[in-house]
Amino acid sequence: MAKKKSVIDLMEMKKKGEKATWITAYDFPMGSFAEQAGLDMILVGDSLGMVVLGYQGTVPVTMDDCISHCKAVRRGAPNTFVIGDMPFGSYQISDADAVYNACRFLKEADMDAIKLEGGMRVISRIKAISDAGIVVFGHIGLTPQSSGQLGGFKAQGRDVNSARELIRDAIAIQEAGARALLLEAVPPELTAYIAKKLTIPVYSIGAGVPCDGQLIICGDMLGLFQAFTPKFVKKYANVAEVIVNAFKEYVDDVKGEKFPEDKHVYHAIDSPEAFEALFKEFE
Ligand code: KIV
Description:
Helix content: 40-55%
CATH architecture of the largest domain: Alpha-Beta Barrel
CATH topology of the largest domain: TIM Barrel
CATH class of the largest domain: Alpha Beta
Radius of gyration: 23 Å
Number of helices: 12
Structural class: alpha/beta
Strand order of the largest sheet: 7-6-5-4-3-2-1-8
Number of domains: 2
Bound molecules: 3-methyl-2-oxobutanoic acid
Number of strands: 8
CATH superfamily of the largest domain: Phosphoenolpyruvate-binding domains
């Protein structure tokens, strides 16, 4: 079994030009599959709100939802670097609140790091959490928790003015003590510049190749999430189709009495006569 990665390993990988792989997971089986497949990291994203809880966005997700899903993933992936995603409302109010909630991820769910969304406006949060001794990952570009302000799930940094803002955010996030930065849905030209400019690893979800690794949402790449598929997703499987077909086959089998078969039942160990006698007791 591969050794669990640390932030030092992630820095080494950046220096060597070795790409890091991460995926989201929200429960025990997915955590376990990710660990078996040798992923470097797992993000228990607040995307769980959309992928597994059926919300329209990530805003309704609570700290308790996140902690519960993080614990399940950790049980499935005890030897993988797992990042807990701070949900909306868990760090917006104050630095003290942010540190308190970040601590919950480590103490209650055994996370290795936390991630939070935003640039300049969360710099004091990143600094406070990092000063508390917690590994922080930043996240800028398309930030789903503020999709309302962005006018939807839209690519960011495509013009020079917004790209400038993102470069400033990225530098400030590193200076505040973050140990990695995730760029979501920004042009590869900008990704390449930021990945070169920063000394910490810079990862992409929908931000192209030129950086230190890739994240993908398990529900998207497996074809489990059916509401929409972002342009930047490669679908590696259509698990929803497999599941729906399996359920349909089960329905047909039960209605046609093809399931259960003899091999699926527990036969009595006493004789049929003994059972007849038993049933008579109740006549
Ligand atoms: O919650 C999540 O999965 C995320 C990704 C969209 C980066 O934050």
